[in-house]
Amino acid sequence: MIVVMKVGSPEPEIQRIESELKEWRLTPEKIIGKHKVVIGLVGDTASLDPLQIKEISPWIESVLRVEKPYKRASLEFRNGEHSNVIVSTPNGDVTFGQNHPIVVIAGPCSVENEAMIIDTAKAVKAAGASFLRGGAYKPRTSPYSFQGHGESALELLAAARDASGLGIITEVMDTADVDKVAEVADILQVGARNMQNFPLLKKVGAQDKPVFLKRGMSATIDEWLMAAEYVLAAGNSNVILCERGIRTFDRKYARNTLDLAVLPVLRSLTHLPIAIDPSHGTGIAQYVPPMAKAAIAAGTDALMIEVHPNPAKALSDGPQSLTFESFEHLMRELSVVGQAVNRWSKSPVPVN
Ligand code: PEP
Ligand code: MN
Fold first, then answer.
1. What is the C-alpha to C-alpha distance for residues 233 and 343, in angstroms, rounded to an integer?
2. Could you tell me which of 163, 147, 146 has the C-alpha nearest to residue 155?
3. Using a 6 Å cutoff on CB, does residue 139 contact ligand 1?
4. What is 2-65's CATH topology?
5. Ligand 1 within 6 A of 148 CB?
6. 249, 259, 302, 349: least buried by Cβ within 10 Å?
């Protein structure tokens, strides 16, 4: 349920309502919207009559039921307002959200060595990216494939952060590594294969860094939003959803089917910001630019793109990785599409 307060409701009155609701064994969560304050209610609300709650105060405008199984992730819980996730990076705050410039995250699939991660960081920054991606812990289908350099790669990411000023996003696969990864990363990635790893979702939900939640390769949209709900319910309100392609019947020509329809669908269901990953979504470098442009046209808030200094020699996901040159070229094209939808940063690209 949500309690919508009248414009100008006095703060002590809001606090009084919150404490009364706690006595009803509900968990109130105050959300300050652009126009109104809303109190989201989580708990056993099924037997409650909205009129009963409305009687608590004359400052309550309305009490509405949230019909979705995901409460905190639902658009209703925010009274129809989409939320922003603000991430601090050495270069300043970066906002993921519908009324903000599109955020570009770029970098290699895996952190391979110091030179390649620092060179990549500098190259993607020069082209206009705000975040560097790179896996230290890699979820690989085969136990014999490169598994990532682990902790030592986290140190290399920290060095790349210092060298470039970019924010860092990297995947955490194991609950035992969350604190270690959160020391270096500005955003924690939960990968497709772990989208329903509930202990991991609870753990990343109980720490402060924003969470980049990839869609499981066979997950429905409801399952994905319920996974986000785990993070939100554990106390972390900063979740970004990332579509990275799903398994469908035809895998002959592309690694996955990139479901761009999630953009308008999710907009109507959730307030959370949305990102698209055309690299894992297609698995083929040549297909990344058209899908990245399409994602912007369809309203994405962010893009995650794999870039490698020498894709032919990459230790993972080489076939879908762009070279520095092709990424730079793509960013020029994206700026045209981004400006057409009024969502491209006008600030000049900083030169290091
Ligand atoms: C990745 O980002 O490198 C990755 C493994 O992604 P996904 O979880 O979407 O497969
Ligand atoms: Mn990858």
1. 31
2. 163
3. yes
4. Alpha-Beta Plaits (3.30.70)
5. no
6. 249
